[in-house]
Amino acid sequence: MFLSSSLMGGIGAFARYIDAPGDFISFFRSFSGLIGMTLFFLFVGGFAKVKSTKFTPSIFFSGLFLGLLSALYVISTQYTTLANASFLIYTGPVYSTILATIFLKEPFKPAMIGSLAAVVVGTLLIVQIISDEGFKLDLDPKYAFGNMIGLASGVAYGLYLFASRYRTDCDSNVRAWYNFLFAVMTIGIMVATRWSKLTYVVREKVDGVPTTKVDKSGNTVTADWDLFSMDARTWTVLIIAALVTGFGAFYFLTLASKILLAGELATISYQETIMASLLGLTFFHEPLSGMQMLGGVLIISGGVSQVYFSTREKPVHTPKEGEPDPEKEKAENLIVTS
User: Fold this and answer.
1) In angstroms, rounded to a whole number, what is the distance separating the alpha carbons of residues 69 and 88?
2) Into how many domains does the chain fold?
């Protein structure tokens, strides 16, 4: 599980070396996962389970929202720090809890108010609406767009988790294949509809580090993108990123899901935010201020406490061989697999 979440947290670092739009990078990554899952199913005869699984709208929407969160997350890593992008997407479980309380009539325990408050305050600290200078809405233009996209990815993540709760009976591998399929379709439509308007972030080497270029106003500089103008380095990094953070991360997640308990899976997945923060600090000189570190701690605490409150009072259930485990299905949904 540690390997899986670490590999997932590396997509933002890879993206810094790819001269391409974030949604195209995400499409290539998800397409790699779809090919890998398809080959795996062909090898083990997994499509028999796909055919026997009843298809419902929730399966479609979970894949659609997974595509959205994946694309938005990769885009956000190109316009803000890796730490900001990773922390903001993990606000998703709280949105999911609110939706489940409203639409699924799941109980909203008083202790969950503390979790929600921690995530809200943590988000304000991460995007620096609350900082050492007090409360302000005049955000740094260099990161403002990326932070907003990061928040949007968190909303998409929450919708993905919410949609997934409707089919906890679905086999995890079957659901993963459908998720990759509809994620690829969703991101593909996003890329196709904006094809002539796609741009990528211009970077320049500063002390050997690829650094976002900004104009005199402090805004990020972008350039028009053309698929056929991508050089050999960009293609090489893109392919490696797709294999490592896409199919590779999913493979280790599959192994972990057979060994760890539900709460352990979901809790360790938050390690992805730590990995992204360390990569940003080590390779791209993106330090977090003390207030932002506090914000990150609050977001992680709020998310992990959600896992704790949702699992501590559940009766222990040991599924029979071949029977889906609803609790493990829910825990796996807390991990971004695409």
Assistant:
1) 11
2) 1
Closest alpha carbon to 246 in 34, 18, 89: 34
**Is residue 42 a contact partner of residue 129, using CB atoms and an 8 Å limit?**
no
| Nearest CA-CA partner of 176 in 49, 273, 295 | 49
DSSP per residue, 294-331: HHHHHHHHHHHHHHHHHHTTSPP--PPTT---HHHHHH
pLDDT, tens only, 80-129: 999 899 889 888 877 887 888 888 887 777 777 888 888 888 888 888 78
Give the integer Cα–Cα distance in Å for 150 and 311: 28
Domain limits for position 144: 1-337
pLDDT tens for 242-295 read 988 877 776 676 566 556 555 555 556 677 788 888 899 899 989 888 999 999
- Tokens describing residue 228: 């056929």
pTM equals: 0.85
The token pair that represents 51 in the structure block: 């055919």
CB atoms within 10 A of CB 207: 6
Total length of the chain: 338
Give the Cα separation of 275 and 272 in Å (integer).
Answer: 5
DSSP 230: -
Helical ranges in 45-140 per DSSP H = 47-52, 57-79, 82-89, 92-103, 110-126
